[in-house]
Amino acid sequence: MKISAVIFDLDGVIVSTDEYHYQAWKQISDQENIYFDRAINERLRGVSRMESLDIILSHSDKVYSESEKYLLAQRKNDIYCELLNKLSPNDILPGIINLLISLKARDIKIAIGSSSKNTPFILDQIGLATNFDAIADGNSIKNSKPDSEVFLLAAEFLGVQPEECVVIEDAQAGIDAAKAAGMKAVGIGSAAKCFNADMKLNDISNLDIDHLLEVNEIRS
Ligand code: BG6
Ligand code: MG
Hints:
The chain is an alpha/beta fold and 220 residues long. It is 42% helix and 11% strand. It is built from ten helices and six strands. The chain has helices at residues 18-31, 38-42, 49-57, 66-84, 96-105, 119-125, 149-158, 172-180, 209-213, 215-218, and strands at residues 5-8, 109-113, 134-136, 165-169, 184-188, 199-201. Strands 3-2-1-4-5-6 form a six-stranded parallel sheet. Strand 4 (165-169), helix 8 and strand 5 form a beta-alpha-beta unit. Helix 1 crosses helix 4. 42% of the residues are buried. The model has no long low-confidence stretch (mean pLDDT 94). Bound molecules: 6-O-phosphono-beta-D-glucopyranose and magnesium ion. Magnesium ion (MG) is lined by residues 9, 11-13, 45-46, 170-171, 174.
C-alpha cells in the first residue's frame, strides 16, 4: 500500500528536548537524594511523565505515595517548562523543515504523535503550531508508547489507514508503538539500533524522501 501520511514523534525528532528533561529530572533526583544519570535519562525516551518518574523512583528505597508522586511530577514539569521557555525556531533539528516542505509538496499528510503533554507549548515555541494536519499527544491518550494508541489516533485524525502511515521515531518505545499500530517505522538517532525499525538512520538530515515513501517495498 502507498504511504499517504508521515507521523512524527516530537521530542528527539522535531526538536531535541532531552537535555531539558535531563536537567529537570536531575534537580528533582538531587533534591530527593536519588541516583540519576544520563544512562537512566535515555530510558525515559518516549515514556510518559508518570512512567518516567516510576523509573527514577525505582532507584530509591523510599516508598512514595500517589499524591507525593503527583507533586514530584508537577515540580519536575515546572522546572522543565521554565527551560522550554528558551526554545525557539532555531532549535528545530536539521532536515525537518525541508522534509515537511517536501511532504506537503507531494500531498503527503503530516501529523505529530507524541507522549508529551507539553506538545502544544513546544510546537508554539518553535513556530510549528499550525503546520501539521493532525496532532495526537499526551493530552489525548490513556496509554503511552509502546502502546499503539497515540499513532492510531493520529491516523484517525488524518482519516487514513494505519498501513498507509510511516512513523519517524527516536525511541524503542515509539518504534514498538508504530509496529503495534501496523505502521512502518523509521528509527533515527538512538532508535537506529532498534531491531524492528523498517529503516534506520543516524541523522534525519540524511533522509531521502523518495527512499522514505518506498519504505513499504523495503520490508513488508
Ligand atoms: C516524550 C519524551 O516525548 O514525552 C519523554 O520522550 C517524556 O522523555 C514524555 O517523559 C512526556 O513528556 P511531558 O512533556 O508530558 O512531561
Ligand atoms: Mg522521542
